[in-house]
């Protein structure tokens, strides 16, 4: 933002004095537009309208395209938690249907939602398939108005020396409603809700607004479609399973499904493909050939119209060559069918995708044999500190100090396969939890990694780290 733009955006004491004076005048006017006839209106235009318009323009530049399109109107508001009695306000409506707004009164600046429009939107959505729609909203709570409005008192606005940091808080509040705004642009609402994915908690996950580059996400999705299978790999705490689930949600469409299987050292071919398993029938022991998880998954996927995704968590913890068996061949030649050793035949339906996750601290990617590696696309995740910053925007924890510590710690580790990820610290009560997280999760991990050089751990003990964090 240039210095001239900053200067022109600053409100003055005169701004709120005039807002107070015009609030007194509105009691005498049936038509609020008549205040333009007042002799003070020229001052009002200079000290209130123009700065507020510039404020909204600065905000508009920062917003997602579907949150733009603002228009400013004069209005009279009733009593709210932030003011008493009727007040005159300037209100800037955003979005095509004027769903969201920012307004300035004599008391300050606050955000809001046009509840009349909001109710109309919900009623419109519920005309068809209302129960299914309600069920979806119950599981995807981000479509509800779940964030408290942003409010800045007049004195806070005047104390903002240079620029308007308030804009960034308002921008963040607006973005919480992006899924709802996008929903209003769709003809078929239910498939669209299913197509969106959400993080645990209050943050939604939407590919145009994540902390990943959109081109990168699209590249990952293309790679999964092209190869049919991919492995997401990275150090502990980089969000591998979470990203796998989000990518899977984007892949399945309206009628697909997702299943997750956890690999471990005792996992076998019989568990995954098929095997003989003893069963008791009428007091007699029988040994039928029973399909494993993957065979069952393929049978279910065959009758689905959309893509179906199998997530294999911790894929590298099992002996993959042994567990996959004949599947190794089909992963490369997906249009073919192959007989299984125990009988039956196996083929991978065209709509099946496989996403594995791999913790590189358990087993390096270099240890996976080349035959398996060439059959998968590999997606690397590194610690993404922007996610940590965004998650804690509205918490009372100063996250920048922790990020400095983590960056220094990962430099000392000096191996991307063992870096400390950010998911350890994605907790809303980090101020209360940080000591336990550090002592019980981070320090034991470091002691294991630096088992032959424990002096390196000493500089990262909690009693030293605590002094560097503003808790």
DSSP summary, beta strand count: 18
* Average pLDDT level: 80
Helix content: 40-55%
Q: Measure the end-to-end span.
A: 32 Å
Return Rg in Å: 29 Å
Largest sheet: 5 strands, antiparallel
Molecular shape? globular
* Percentage of residues in DSSP E strands: 15-25%
The helix/strand class is: alpha/beta
Strand order of the largest sheet: 1-2-3-4-5
List segments where confidence is low: pLDDT < 50 over at least 5 consecutive residues: 1-8, 80-84, 197-211
Brief rundown of the structure:
With 471 residues, the chain is of the alpha/beta class.
Model description:
- This protein is of the alpha/beta class and 471 residues long.
- The chain has helices at residues 3-9, 13-25, 41-62, 115-125, 130-139, 154-158, 166-175, 178-183, 189-195, 214-227, 240-252, 269-272, 293-301, 320-324, 327-332, 370-373, 385-391, 399-413, 430-449, 455-458, 462-465, and strands spanning 71-77, 87-94, 100-105, 108-113, 151-153, 197-198, 204-205, 229-234, 258-262, 274-276, 279-281, 284-286, 289-291, 308-313, 337-339, 345-347, 352-359, 377-381.
- The strands form 6 sheets. Strands 1-2-3-4-5 form a 5-stranded antiparallel beta sheet. The chain has a 5-stranded parallel beta sheet with strand order 9-14-17-8-18, sandwiched between helices.
- A hairpin with a 5-residue loop joins strand 6 and strand 7.
What would the keywords be for this entry?
disordered N terminus, 5-stranded parallel β-sheet, alpha/beta, 5-stranded antiparallel β-sheet, 471 residues
């Amino acid at each position: 933002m240039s210095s001239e733009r900053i200067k022109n955006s600053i409100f003055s004491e005169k701004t709120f004095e005039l807002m107070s004076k015009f609030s007194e005048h509105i009691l005498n006017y049936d038509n609020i537009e008549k205040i333009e006839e007042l002799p003070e209106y020229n001052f009002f235009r200079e000290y209130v309208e123009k700065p507020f318009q510039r404020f909204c323009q600065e905000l508009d530049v920062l917003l997602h395209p579907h949150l733009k399109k603002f228009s400013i109107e004069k209005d009279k508001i009733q009593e709210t938690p932030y003011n008493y009695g009727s007040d005159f306000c300037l209100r800037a409506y955003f979005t095509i249907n004027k769903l969201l707004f920012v307004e300035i009164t004599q008391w300050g600046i606050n955000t809001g939602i046009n509840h009349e429009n909001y109710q109309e939107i919900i009623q419109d959505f519920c005309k068809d398939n209302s129960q299914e729609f309600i069920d979806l909203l119950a599981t995807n709570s981000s479509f509800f108005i779940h964030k408290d409005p942003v409010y800045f008192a007049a004195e806070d606005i005047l104390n903002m020396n240079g620029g308007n940091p308030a804009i960034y808080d308002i921008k963040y509040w607006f973005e919480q409603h992006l899924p709802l705004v996008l929903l209003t642009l769709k003809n078929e609402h239910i498939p669209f809700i299913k197509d969106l994915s959400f993080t645990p908690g209050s943050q939604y996950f939407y590919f145009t607004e994540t902390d990943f580059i959109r081109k990168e996400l699209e590249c990952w999705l293309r790679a999964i479609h092209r190869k049919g299978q991919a492995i997401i790999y990275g150090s502990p705490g980089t969000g591998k399973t979470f990203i796998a689930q989000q990518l899977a949600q984007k892949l399945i469409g309206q009628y697909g499904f997702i299943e997750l299987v956890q690999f471990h050292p005792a996992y076998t071919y019989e568990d995954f493909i098929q095997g003989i398993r003893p069963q008791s029938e009428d007091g007699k022991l029988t040994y039928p050939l029973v399909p494993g998880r993957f065979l069952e998954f393929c049978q279910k996927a065959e009758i689905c119209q959309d893509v179906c995704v199998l997530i294999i968590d911790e894929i590298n913890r099992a002996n993959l060559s042994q567990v996959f068996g004949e599947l190794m061949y089909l992963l490369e030649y997906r249009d073919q069918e192959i007989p299984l050793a125990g009988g039956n035949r196996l083929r991978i339906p065209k709509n099946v995708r496989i996403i594995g996750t791999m913790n590189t601290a358990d087993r390096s990617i270099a240890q996976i044999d080349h035959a398996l590696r060439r059959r998968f696309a590999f997606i690397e995740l590194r610690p993404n500190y922007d996610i940590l910053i965004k998650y804690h925007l509205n918490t009372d924890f100063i996250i920048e100090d922790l990020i400095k510590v983590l960056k220094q710690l990962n430099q000392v580790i000096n191996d991307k396969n063992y870096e400390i990820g950010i998911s350890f610290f994605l907790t809303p009560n980090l101020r209360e939890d940080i000591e336990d997280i550090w002592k019980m999760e981070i320090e034991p991990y470091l002691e294991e990694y630096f088992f032959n050089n424990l002096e390196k751990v000493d500089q990262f003990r909690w009693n030293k780290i605590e002094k560097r964090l503003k808790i």
